[in-house]
Amino acid sequence: MRGLRPFGALLLAAVLGTPWLAHGQVANAAAKTAAPSAPVILVLGDSLSAEYGLKRGTGWVALLEQQLAAQQKSAVRVVNASISGDTTSGGRSRLPALLAQHRPSTVVIELGGNDALRGLPLSMTQSNLAAMTQASKKAGAKVLLLGMQVPPNYGAAYSAEFAGLFVKVAKAEQVALVPFFLKGIADMEDATANFQADRIHPNELSQAGMLANVLPELKKLIK
Fold first, then answer.
1. One of 23, 46, 47, 159 is an active-site residue; which one?
2. pLDDT tens across 21-71, in order?
3. d(CA 128, CA 91)
4. Alpha-carbon torsion 56, 60, 62, 67, what sign?
5. Would you call 102 a catalytic residue per the annotation?
C-alpha cells in the first residue's frame, strides 16, 4: 500500500462528507423508464458511490447504468442508495426499508471506510456487514461486498485486520467480494492525479477504474 502514503489518513476520508445524495438520484433515463418489475441492483454505499464532488451522472454507479444499457441490459434498474458519510451502522439501519421498497435481485455493499476513520470497533463493522449480507440474502438478493483498505499509518496489524474483515464476511456468508474497491487508484506510487483537488475524493477520471474493479464480479451475479 505504498501509494496510500501521500494521502495518509486523508485518503480514507474519501468516504466522508455531509450527507447530500438521496436514494437513486444518479439514475439515468434507461433506469427510469425500465419496467417496475425489472431486476434491481441496489448500491448501498458512502461518498465513494454517491458522486461526492462530481457532476451528476459521472460517478461509477451512473457509468454502470450506462454500460448495462449499452449492452442491451436496459431492463435492469440500478438504485443508488449511497449517502456520503454513511457507516455500516447507518447502512444496516437503512437496508430493511430499501429491501422492502426496491426488492433488489442484487445488493452491492460499499461501506466500512468511515467506521475505520471514526475508530469504531472492527468487530462492530464486521457484524454490521454480516447482518446486511444476511438480510439481503434472506430477501432473495445476491450480494457483492466492496472491500476497503486504510492507509499504512494506521499500523500494519490494524490495516491487515480491517482489510481482512471483508474477506471473512464474504467467506462466512459465501458471497462475492472485490477485495479493494480502489485498486489501481489509491495504491499507485503517486496517486495524486486520481483524486479531486482536495486530494481526498476520487475524481471523474477515476470512476471508470472503480467500475472496472466492480464489473467482473458483478457480471457473474446478474448474468
1. 47
2. 444 443 443 344 445 578 999 999 999 999 999 999 999 999 999 999 888
3. 8
4. positive
5. no
